[in-house]
Write a structure and sequence with these properties.
10% strand; 3 domains; 5 strands; alpha/beta; disordered C terminus; Nucleotidyltransferase, domain 5; 43% helix
């Protein structure tokens, strides 16, 4: 059987045998066989003449064992898109790259969704623009004052809006709802929230053990605007997972990336990211048949398909996004696109 050598091998089995059985010095043997003294020393110290594998003994993977297990579990149990699995892992480690997650999937042979899983996924209802997932999350304190971020994301287009408040009372929710109604270009038809007291009264219990049936301020706002307010099952945050992942995306690009000196500095950067996210950030979870990359492109595509769902045109919506930065005294968001992309580095 013919011996297969490494591509850069400078000796063969015959020469290696002579090296091991010859009593000449390393310098003499190196001169005779036209190789380095290190090569002579290497084969003299071995008791075999075959090439060994060049693979490293200890391979350092980009993902830890726990991160790999989480990624594999998320993918194989839900068949979420790679981008959504990646964003979920970013909450625990902002340094994880998308390519690391993809390589992990390739190794486990789960980088492609099986056909039977695709067929099941097609059975799930594909929502049109106007279905918002809403949540509230914590922000850093400044001078002892707590701050909260109310976040809303549209299921179909992935367009997002958020606002910073000093509390998460029902009054803040009511104000946030007004701003959502003004911001989103579509007619809002449904809203999904958790069971927090800022959203609903249904878990408030009287001393007699009776649950409250009085509508919350959000319920009243929804009824006035013909919006269906849906609630997740108690203690099941994964039901509202889309906005939970959006929270992680926002934080990984702002408060977990930069240490802000005050609320104003944080607010400026968050508005900058909101502009970038809606107009330029590629989003892998958008429906493939739309053939779009960014939330704004999804708005444009849906406007062509079903313009009756919209109350403003895509251009008007774009101008509204750009106007969010008008109080920052900086260049318009559109002219700063390249620098924002460089700062985000992968988002």
């Amino acid at each position: 059987m013919q011996q297969i050598y490494h591509f850069n091998a400078t000796t063969n089995i015959n020469i290696r045998t002579q090296i091991q059985t010859n009593s000449a010095t390393n310098s003499e043997l190196a001169s005779r066989f036209n190789v380095s003294k290190q090569t002579i020393s290497k084969w003299k110290n071995r008791d075999f003449v075959q090439d060994v594998s060049c693979a490293p003994h200890n391979i350092i993977y980009a993902l830890t064992d726990l991160e790999k297990a989480l990624a594999i579990s998320l993918r194989s149990s839900t068949w979420l898109p790679i981008d959504e699995v990646w964003e979920s892992l970013l909450e625990g480690n902002p340094a994880i790259s998308r390519s690391s997650v993809y390589r992990c999937f390739v190794k486990e042979n789960i980088n492609k969704v099986p056909q039977e899983k695709r067929d099941i996924a097609k059975k799930f209802k594909a929502y049109k623009p106007g279905y918002l997932n809403i949540d509230v999350t914590y922000l850093p304190k400044f001078e002892g004052q707590s701050y909260y971020l109310f976040v809303a994301i549209d299921r179909a287009t992935r367009t997002m809006f958020y606002e910073v408040y000093e509390n998460k009372k029902a009054e803040s929710t009511e104000d946030f709802m007004d701003k959502c109604l003004d911001f989103f270009p579509v007619h809002i038809t449904h809203i999904l929230t958790d069971n927090g007291l800022e959203f609903t009264n249904r878990l408030i219990m009287s001393k007699k053990g009776k649950l409250c049936d009085k509508p919350s301020k959000m319920d009243v706002k929804c009824m006035k605007n013909n919006i269906e307010h849906r609630l997740t099952k108690p203690a099941t945050p994964k039901t509202n997972g889309m906005v939970e992942r959006a929270n992680g995306t926002i934080k990984n690009n702002t408060i977990l990336k930069i240490k802000y000196q005050n609320k104003q500095q944080m607010g400026k950067d968050m508005m900058e990211f909101l502009c970038y996210y809606n107009l330029y950030r590629r989003h892998g979870s958008l429906r493939k048949e739309l053939n779009v990359k960014t939330p704004f492109q999804a708005v444009e595509k849906w406007y062509k398909i079903e313009p009756e769902l919209f109350k403003t045109t895509p251009n008007e919506f774009k101008n509204k996004i750009l106007s969010l930065q008008s109080d920052l005294n900086q260049q318009p968001c559109e002219t700063r696109q390249l620098s924002i992309k460089n700062n985000r580095n992968g988002f």
